[in-house]
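G., the chain you wanted modeled:
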Amino acid sequence: MLETYAVGQSGGQPAERYVYSPVYVNAVVLRDDDTDADGTVDRRLYATCDANFDITTVLDSSGNIQEHFVYDAYGSKIVTNGDWTVQSVRHAGVEEHVPGRAGGFGDAG
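Predicted structure as tokens:
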């Protein structure tokens, strides 16, 4: 588990919390975060991965698809929303904050 706290925040709830699978070093299982910066964690996102532990889908706590990640043969990624429309701005996010990973489960928009 990895937790981050907002600047000046002491005690209480973290601004973000990542939970990792024991199966692989950077396999994210879920992310909790404080979307409105009020000191309370109010959103949980789940990640699904392929056989290479690349995140392929981000789901909310109700099971609704927030984002899909499609990878080509060279590892380039296209981000789409739940209906497969390509996104120019990330909304759910999960992977940007995974140590050693570039792009995915983190907010960029």
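The longest strand covers residues 43-49.

Shout if anything looks off.
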